[in-house]
Specification:
The structure is a single chain. The protein is globular, with a radius of gyration of 15 Å. The chain has one domain. The chain has an eight-stranded parallel sheet with strand order 1-4-7-10-13-15-17-18, with no helix packed on it. Strands 3-6-9-12-14-16 form a six-stranded parallel sheet, with no helix packed on it. It is built from no helices and 18 strands. The protein is mainly β.
Length: 206
């Protein structure tokens, strides 16, 4: 659905959508607002060299994702789930969503969910059974001081199962009330549980 200022995708199923560039099911690069609600991405993927976003790739002013699920999505490069970039100084959010059983056949693959830009918050997310070499979640250059809250990272295979942050700058508190349960390491590159530049984590259950 389109209006003058937004792209809205609601109550939809994208199954088996593939391409050889960014965004297996959805690609959007436009100064608009993006709203994704009650959407399932199943077995979507990208096969192109250096392509991102097996389910979705977006570069928008702002975004709101709620009740969104990616399952068995894949990429031949990075980010088999959702890869999103938002405008600086604008509020965006991802909530009540799940990213499960996503994978990549690329060595040193990063991120099921990769987000950056703006005042970004996420809550009540579930990351389970994903298979990546490096990390499950990435945050780049967020403007706000609290990002991920009340979420679960469980039963993934990834060297950094919780959060991989780069170039945060202003971010003080990166995560609160996060369950990190029964994740398996890969031994690729960082060889650590967490990787932060200028961020903190509070109230973890390991």
């Amino acid at each position: 659905m389109f209006d003058c200022n937004a792209v809205i995708v609601e109550v939809s199923v994208f199954k088996g959508c593939t391409c050889n560039s960014n965004g297996g099911a959805i690609f959007l690069s436009s100064p608009l607002k993006l709203f994704i609600g009650a959407v399932l991405f199943a077995s979507c993927g990208v096969s192109g060299q250096s392509s991102h976003g097996g389910a979705l790739y977006s570069e928008t002013d702002s975004g709101k994702f709620t009740r969104t699920c990616t399952i068995d999505c894949w990429t031949s490069y990075w980010c088999p789930g959702c890869c999103c970039s938002f405008g600086e100084g604008i509020k965006s959010s991802i909530a009540q969503s799940a990213f499960c059983s996503c994978w990549s056949n690329c060595y040193a693959c990063h991120y099921v969910l990769c987000t950056g830009g703006g005042f970004l918050t996420s809550s009540h997310l579930n990351f389970s059974e994903n298979r990546l070499d490096i990390s499950v979640i990435a945050i780049h250059s967020s403007d706000n001081t609290k990002t991920h809250t009340t979420s679960t990272v469980a039963n993934n295979t990834a060297e950094i199962p919780l959060i991989h942050c780069q170039n945060i700058g202003k971010l003080d508190v990166c995560a609160e009330r996060i369950n990190v349960i029964t994740n398996s390491k890969t031994g690729v590159w960082h060889n650590s549980l967490f990787h932060f530049d200028t961020a903190q984590v509070r109230t973890l259950n390991l």
